Sequence to fold (595 residues):
Amino acid sequence: MNKRSRFIIVLVVLAVCFAFLWPSISWYARTPKDQQSLALGSLEKIKDYTIVKAKEEVDNLISMAKANPEAVLDSSYDYLVKAAKKNYKETAKAYKSAGMEVPETPAVMTVSAILSSFKGTNARAELSSVIEGKYRDEILAAKKRYNSSVKLGLDLSGGMNIIVRANLDEALAAKKAEGNEITDEAQWKKDAMAQTIETLTSSIDKFGLTSPVIRQQGEDRIYIEIPGAADRESVNTIIMGKGILNFRLVDEDATNAFNIYYNQNPATTFNSDGKLIDSSVIPADTEVMGYYIKDDYGLDERTGFIVVKKEIALDGEHVKSAIVSADQTTNQPEVNFVLDSEGAVIFGDFTAANVGKRLAIVSDNKVKSAATIRQAINGGQVSLSGGFSVEEAQNIQKVLQTASLSVPLEVESQQVVGASLGEQAIRQGLNALTWGLAAVLVFMILYYMGAGFNAVVAQILNMYIMFSVLSAFNLTLTLSSVAGMILTVGMSVDANVIIFERIKEELKNGKSRAAAVAAGFDNAFWAIMDSNITTFIAAAFLSKLGTGSIQGFAVSLAIGVCSSVFTALVVSRLMFDFNTEVMNRKTMSIGWGVK
Fold:
């Protein structure tokens, strides 16, 4: 490989690593602390905050307009100026289409002009919505940056600690009621707990929560530890998603009649518990449920009511998997899910008997989707499409993914825990990493002189690449991960030492600088590869077989091994070649008494 190829490869790797690292840089260095605090909170708290801030801003603007109508807002209100101009443009268009004289748009967007652009009975609500959207977008964007950044583990940043109780007796009784014969109840409970833990782990991974620790405590309790700032909404959706999802037929006539009744009697339809006051409003074999979609914050928002049959057409435990794809004809999002063999038979018979009717997906007594049955669905491969957005399709997918828990779960305790070592641990870990790196680099410069500078650059880039890979895969940084990095710093200079010693030997044999560098790298290649491959194999096995801190240590070590080989063989070689061919240096500073 010539130096131009090496140069291009190094540039590409550095650029890709910067792209990987940018979310972490944006979160930790560019996101204000107050915005970080808001972004790490629950979606309900974010929504409450933006609503309050919007109200305060509206009141402030009204006060400013009364005090000084001609005041011009600073650049932080550019979003309001843009919204006002859009309103004036739409107003002018409406006047023009109606054949009326078009009102003049103000040349300068003063406070009064901005407020005047929001007209009608809902003017305040529209202005508040624009302001709320600005705060919401900023905080949710910060939350997205956090989700894409390197996160600190529970031992560094704290996190969420949850204890869940599995109601095995209730699940066992339900199985017996279904006519299942269970000869060994103790073994059944053991298998049920194992399946529950496996399903919870799989669901948490699908929701993108970082490095969870899930283990059984006693006979019927599960301990869940999630580092960082996981949303309570997501966690509760996963945990409470067991056995509560089902498919039910929609009663269209009852739905239409109920909505008419509700619109006429909104205050007297439900009691404080959300139950119908007059149960005769709907047929005896039905019940009314809210129809929910995700709002701009990702929270469930009720958009209406649907009356569904009490009889469950298909239980969610028959759903094996679910994915979101695009319809080949319309390119609209659709949700595809697979049923087990028993569910396929039940669903095939049911859909054949109810073609043209709507089928509701019910989760936690909320209707999440109501698609029309176009034809009989056989084979267990089901596609849901109904003109919903990508976000709605993903929401339905998540609901289906958490449907397979057959054991009822209840949260016994859920609390946010502080870091076990906190800022002191972070400071000590960073100090160890910094001083360890500094000591190694100082030794390399003192012992290998000018060539040691190549090792310094290689080690700095090595750390840069390691953090970039951590960020790329959204891995969690723990104390054990920091230990793996510190070990990598000490080990990674081995490759430089081997190369430098080979080059020194070639120089002592009378070879020129260029020939000595080429021979040194060529002769050292397999020695470096052999040692690092064996280390990588050991780290790979540890990462697969180990858990917790052992796994974190092994992953960071494996990443460090790969990045150190690259920097030693490619980056360091490029620097030597640059000094030889571009700087035209004939001698080399690679140790005391060696030229």
